[in-house]
Amino acid sequence: MKMFKKNPIMFPILLCIALIVFGVVGGYILGIDGSDQKMRKESKIKNNAINYNDENNNDRNKVKTSLVDGNAIVVSTNIIYKVKYKECGHEVVKNEKPGDDMIGLNRKEFEKYVEDNFIDWQISSFSREEITLMSEKSTLCPNHFVVGEMNGKIVIFKINEDGERVVHKIFKDTTISTLREENREKIKKGIVVDTEEDAIQILENFIT
Question: Where is the Bypass of forespore C C-terminal domain (predicted)?
Answer without folding.
Answer: 150-206
